[in-house]
Amino acid sequence: MRRRWLSLALFAATLPGGCGLPPAPPLDADRGIGGTGIDVADRGIGGTGIVGVVGKDGTLAIAGRQIGTNAVASVHVDGLPAGLDALRPGQVVAVAAQWQQDRLQARTLAVRHEVSGPVEEVAAEGDRIVVAGQTVRLEGADSAPRRGEWVAVSGLRDAEGVIRASRVDQRRPGEVSVSGLLEADGRGWRLGALAVRGAVLPPAGQRIRVTGRYVRGVLQVRSAGPDPLLDFPPAIDRFLVEAYPRSEGGRLWLVPGLSVVMAPSFTLVPTGGPLVIALTLEADRGLVATGVQEMGGGQSDAGSPGAAPGGPGQHGSAGHGGMGNGPGAAPGGAAPGGGGPGNAGPGSDGPGGAGGPGGGPGGVGGPGGGGPGNDGPGGGGPGGAGGPGGGGGGGPGR
C-alpha cells in the first residue's frame, strides 16, 4: 500500500528512549506537475483535506470558500471527542470535507494546539514567549501571558519553526503536549529546544505529537503519534493547506521537515503572512503543489486567465493631480476586464490633473473625477485606456 503523504508516522516498532539517531530524510512528495492559481471547484474524487485557522466570526472558510458544518460526523480537540460548540476563532483545524450541492461540507474536524504547557520566558517587548521549549510569536495579542502560567497555543509554524500564534488560551497545569519536527542530537531527541525522552518514539525527522510529564526541562513521553493536522483518510486526493511556506533548492517547504516538489510553473511570492497552498495527490506521480493563493483571496500568480482586478494607480502628488501609475494587472488570458475610472488628485490652485490609466488590461477606462482646488474644483481628466484583452481590468487611478 502506498504511504499517505500526510500520514506522517506509522509506529511499526518501538525504539529505546534517549538514543541519538541520525535524522531520517524529510517527508516529501516527489514528482510534480504544472499548474498555477487555486481552483477550489476542482473537487477530486475522494474529497478535500483542509488545514486552516477558524475565522474571527467562528466560521470555517479557506481560499475564499465557506465550509459548511451541517454534516459533521465527528469533532475532536487534542484527540478527545467534542462538539461543534468547542470551535473557537483562531483555532487551527484539520477538516475532511466532501462536495455537496456545490458547497464543501465538513465531515470530520480535528482541532489541536501546537503547544500546550507552561510559559517559561516572556520577551521584554511582550511579543514573544517560550512555552515548553517552543518559541511563540504573539500576533496582535492584547497582552502576553506571564511566566509560570499554563497556556494552550493555536497557530502555524513559519519557516524558522516559530509558532505564529492565532489564539492563546489559559489552562490548568497538567501534562504537556507538543506537535512538531522530531530531531536528534548527541544527547537524544528534541522538539525545538524541548528535550524529549520516552520508550515509544519514531526515528528523527518525523513530524509528531507527543504528550507527557514535563520535569526539569525534559518531556517524559507518555504517548506519541502522527500529527492529527497532517493525517487524513486515504480516499482524500485534494488538499488546501494554510501555511508559511518557503522555497529552497527547487522544493516547497510547508513546515520544517515537510516539503514537496514545485511544479515548473509554480511561483511562490512570499508575503510575510500565511498562504493557502493547493496540493493534488495523483496515483502515478504522488503529491504535487498545484496553486497558491493569499489568505485574502487574491491569486499570487499574476496574469492567470480571468485574474482578479488589479489595484488602483498611485495617488497624484499635492498641487496638481498626478497620473495614476501603471496598470494594476498584468496581461493574461482571454477574460476581458473593464478599466476603472481615473480620479484626478486635488489641485492646490488650479485644475486637477488627468486621471491615471484604468490599469487593468481590458476595456477603456472611464472619465477621471474632478479634483478640488483651493480656489475652485479642478477639471476632470480622462481615464486611461485599458490594454488589449487579458486579465481583469485594473482599479481606478487616484
From TrEMBL:
Residues 1-19 form the signal peptide. The keyword Membrane does not apply. Residues 293-398 are annotated as: Disordered. Residues 308-398 have a biased composition (Gly residues). InterPro entries: DUF5666. The keyword Signal applies. Keywords: Signal. Residues 117-168 form the DUF5666 domain. This is DUF5666 domain-containing protein.
